[in-house]
TrEMBL record:
Keywords for this protein: Aminoacyl-tRNA synthetase, ATP-binding, Ligase, Nucleotide-binding, Protein biosynthesis
InterPro entries (UniProt xref): Aa-tRNA-synt_II, aa-tRNA-synth_II/BPL/LPL, Asn-tRNA-ligase
Native species: Gossypium hirsutum
Signal sequence annotation: none
Family from the record: Belongs to the class-II aminoacyl-tRNA synthetase family.
Name this polypeptide is given: asparagine--tRNA ligase
Catalytic class of the enzyme: ligase
GO-annotated molecular function: ligase activity
EC numbers for this chain: 6.1.1.22
Domain (Aminoacyl-tRNA synthetase class II (D/K/N)) ranges: 316-578
Name of encoding gene: LOC121219401
């Protein structure tokens, strides 16, 4: 018979972080059955206390109880007999306590004083054990950290409440508790303690609702929920770059400050250093450093005066002309697409809208794509492939976080993502969408529908959630509802633009084929009353080697919202800026 071999124990690598010399808790907590191979390893970990408990091992009163003869001298084989003197000497501490209890002064009995000096100090407080659940943000789970004050001195009265930062060295052991955790750290040395003020620490209370956490954007990343959202966001960020790099796209940074209006439908933030725009008074007005002030600006074609009715002296301003925070970078991206082929950009875009929508804040991150030698159909296919790739990547690379958001937020989120990965998306024209919505009899829409007006969120939701029950791509919109640079179709009424609408979310991707014909572009600019001088550089792309090209814009923050099952974008944007609120 062949001898049975014991299964080999795999020991996961515990490599300290290169720049902080500590081990990420993720490498300890998420190694599955291989945790047994970590027992006995000495590591340095750091994190913030999620919960704490102190257990005192012996009551103070127990120290006054004298030991019994059996406790003091337990029988033992080969142990020699003690003399009477040795017995009396062993009881000296007990006799001292009796003398102090009866208030006998040692001055009255010099011999006693001499015999019992020096008088011992009061006994130290009994040792305690601190059981801390700490997290460093790398994992859903927390690590149990056990501190024995008999081994690691802890200052008297020193507590380690929720929010305390701790860096400690210790040995990984099998958990002594009967909970879900199988491993814990027995501390041998405390390297750092960052104290906390429990009375003012916002997370002292357990599980604050998300709307309350919005008041503490600088503290809320320490919650399990926001930490999980952030890890999903990070993974999605990497996935987006991976998709485009895999398909030969180059990453290009486009400007945040611009002098053009790339859409013509959004309210913008004006950028100025002019003190006439209320940069302060008194001592503040004498500040010489340049300050960027965002002032709401209505559509570029609106010739009415701004703000208080006083137009700034733009010639004296920093840029010498009116400048704004960018609403879209696709126009700038076109110039690189017309030289390098396929390009994309990833960054913040700004809209000064006061809608109060839960899916819109003033600053949102987007992925923008431009593809040379392509038409509308090519962009729609690229957008659909990108969307499916992101869904699959999140499911493959965030299993622990997706399991958490499924349990805490939306039990159907994983199923929905899997479904959207495996099906084909419905494609309908704007006209077809209007025809479908007009035939609806079991629902009344708030906005009256007619051809030529934008489809509202209510209309789009019905198409994706109720009618098709899958993502829908709507294309060929009326030219009046899309930007000036979108290519005009042969019917002269519609343009080559599309929106991708996703169930339970709405529009996540918008795209179009750009107008490559100079005469058509000039005519559209005239319709929008745009300055030829301001867009001269953009027209140059049509004069010098024009090419058909198309692209799209993916709302990155909306994708995070979709992946997590949340409904309010303020819960996924790290520091949301909304009308009347930008505290951090």
């Amino acid at each position: 018979m062949e001898s049975q071999q014991e299964p080999k124990v795999t020991i996961p690598p515990l490599i300290p972080l290169e720049y902080s010399n500590r081990v990420m808790l993720k490498t300890i907590l998420e190694c599955g059955d291989d945790q047994i191979g970590l027992f006995g390893k000495t590591v340095v970990v750091g994190g913030w206390v999620k919960s704490s408990k102190e257990v005192k091992r012996e009551p103070v009163a127990a120290a006054l109880k004298p030991p019994t003869a059996a406790e003091a001298f337990p029988p033992s084989p080969g142990r020699k007999e003690l003399s009477c003197v040795e017995v009396v000497q062993s009881r000296i501490p007990f006799f001292k306590k009796i003398i102090r209890v009866f208030g006998v002064s040692s001055d009255s009995y010099p011999g006693v004083r001499e015999k019992f000096e020096p008088v011992p100090k009061p006994p130290p407080p009994p040792p305690s054990k601190f059981f801390l659940q700490i997290s460093d943000g790398s994992s859903i789970s927390s690590l149990m950290v056990v501190i024995d004050s008999a081994v690691v001195p802890v200052s008297a009265g020193h507590v380690l409440p929720t929010g305390t930062c701790i860096l400690a060295q210790g040995v990984l052991e099998k958990s002594s508790s009967h909970g879900k955790q199988t491993i814990e750290l027995k501390v041998e040395k405390i390297l750092h303690i960052g104290t906390v003020e429990p009375d003012t620490y916002p997370l002292s209370r357990k599980r604050l609702p998300l709307d309350s956490l919005r008041d503490y954007p600088h503290i809320r990343p320490r919650t399990t929920m926001v930490a999980s959202i952030t890890r999903i966001c990070d993974t999605l960020d990497f996935a987006a770059h991976t998709f485009f790099h895999n398909h030969g796209f180059l990453h290009v940074q486009v400007p945040i400050i611009t002098t053009i209006d790339s859409e013509g439908f959004s309210e913008k933030f004006q950028v100025t250093t002019s003190k006439k725009w209320g940069l302060g008074s008194g001592s503040d007005a004498d500040v010489r450093h340049e300050t960027v002030k965002a002032e709401q600006h209505i559509e570029a074609r609106d010739k009415s005066k701004l703000g208080t009715g006083v137009k700034p002296e733009v010639k004296e301003d920093f840029f010498g002309r009116q400048s704004y925070l960018s609403v879209s970078g696709r126009l700038h991206l076109e110039s690189y697409a017309c030289a390098l082929g396929n390009v994309y950009s990833f960054g913040p875009r700004f809209r000064a809208e006061k809608t109060g929508s839960i899916k819109q804040v003033a600053e949102m991150w987007v992925v923008e794509v431009e593809i040379a030698f392509s038409q509308l159909e090519d962009s729609m296919k690229c957008a659909e492939d990108c969307f499916k790739f992101l869904c699959k990547w999140i499911l493959d690379h965030c299993p622990h976080d997706m399991k958490f958001v499924t349990k805490r937020i939306d039990k159907t989120i994983v199923h929905r993502l899997e479904y959207m990965m495996s099906i084909s998306y419905e494609r309908i024209s704007y006209r077809e969408a209007v025809d479908i919505l007009r035939k609806v009899t079991d629902k009344t829409f708030e906005t009256k529908l007619r051809w030529g007006v934008p489809l509202t969120a209510e209309h789009l939701s019905y198409l994706a959630d109720d009618h098709y029950k899958r993502p829908v791509i709507i294309y060929d919109y009326p030219k009046a509802v899309k930007p000036f640079y979108v290519r005009l179709n042969d019917d002269g009424k519609t343009v080559a633009a599309f929106d991708m609408v996703v169930p339970k979310m709405g529009t996540v991707i918008t795209g179009s084929q750009s107008e490559e014909r100079l005469d058509m572009l000039s005519a559209r600019m005239k319709e929008f009353d745009l300055s030829r001088d301001q867009y001269e550089w953009y027209q140059d792309l049509r004069k010098h080697g024009t090419v058909k090209h198309s692209g799209f814009r993916l709302g990155f923050d909306l994708m995070v919202l979709l992946m997590t099952g949340l409904t309010d974008v303020r819960d996924v944007v790290p520091f949301p800026r909304t009308h009347g609120k930008a505290n951090n």
